[in-house]
Amino acid sequence: MMTTFASQDALSSPSVARNRDPILTVLRRVLPPAGTVLEIASGTGEHAVYFAAALPQLTWQPSDQDEQALRSIAAHRAASGLPNLLTPLALDAAAPDWPVEQVDAVVAINMVHISPWRATQGLMAGAGRVLSPGGVLYLYGAYRENGANTAPSNEAFDADLKRRNPDWGVRDLEEVAELAGGHGLKLSERISMPANNLSLVFHR
Ligand SMILES: C[S@@+](CC[C@H](N)C(=O)[O-])C[C@H]1O[C@@H](n2cnc3c(N)ncnc32)[C@H](O)[C@@H]1O
Predict the structure, then answer these.
(1) CATH number of the domain residue 98 falls in
(2) What global pTM score does this model have?
(3) What digits encode the pLDDT tens for the residues 120-137?
(4) Where do the DSSP E strands lie in the chain?
(5) Residue 94 is part of which domain span?
(6) Which atom of ligand 1 lies at the shortest distance from residue 41's CA?
(7) 20-54: per-residue pLDDT in tens?
(8) Residue in 50, 63, 64 to alter for ligand 1 test, most ligand atoms within 8 A of Cβ
């Protein structure tokens, strides 16, 4: 049966247009030349369409835990017609099992600070399970370093996140790296990004 997606399902996030090109520049360099990329917390699906279009040699697997996000990703995917962009998967990063076997890269943009810590714990455990040897975990977002926020604007952002949900908040880079290490993922690169964000690249 064909499922059709109403265009009103296709949500838009203003930050995507601002960060997609700086992120793509990093992804072009750090992602494997071919294979499957699992995107966790794809949100609206706009990144998935943009990156799948720009990186046609990769198969892009979007996912999210949220129903509305899944509908939005599916609507953007249908409108794009991209052959290398797969149907979105319902995937909770915190779940002990993910509905994927093996992938060559895992990408999570703006999730670690906008979800409870157990989502990051699940993300690291899951990436450790599904990444092929030498596979890449790419994270993008705001982080604290050496016990402090990297900019006053991140301090205010952190306070705002915690007001919205006390379980959210800007995480310590060192704690995230240590958690990753416990799942066989080694932090190999930290890249400063616009607006006080970081790209973090881990290798399995
Ligand atoms: C701020 S949005 C970021 C979306 C997109 N990556 C972006 O940068 O526009 C955070 C996303 O994380 C998803 N999320 C939160 N907790 C999650 C979890 N445990 N597993 C999977 N996705 C999760 C939410 O549903 C939401 O789509």
Answers:
(1) 3.40.50.150
(2) 0.96
(3) 999 999 999 999 999 999
(4) 35-40, 58-61, 63-64, 89-90, 103-109, 131-141, 143-145, 148-149, 171-172, 186-193, 197-203
(5) 3-203
(6) 22
(7) 999 999 999 999 999 999 999 999 999 999 999 99
(8) 64
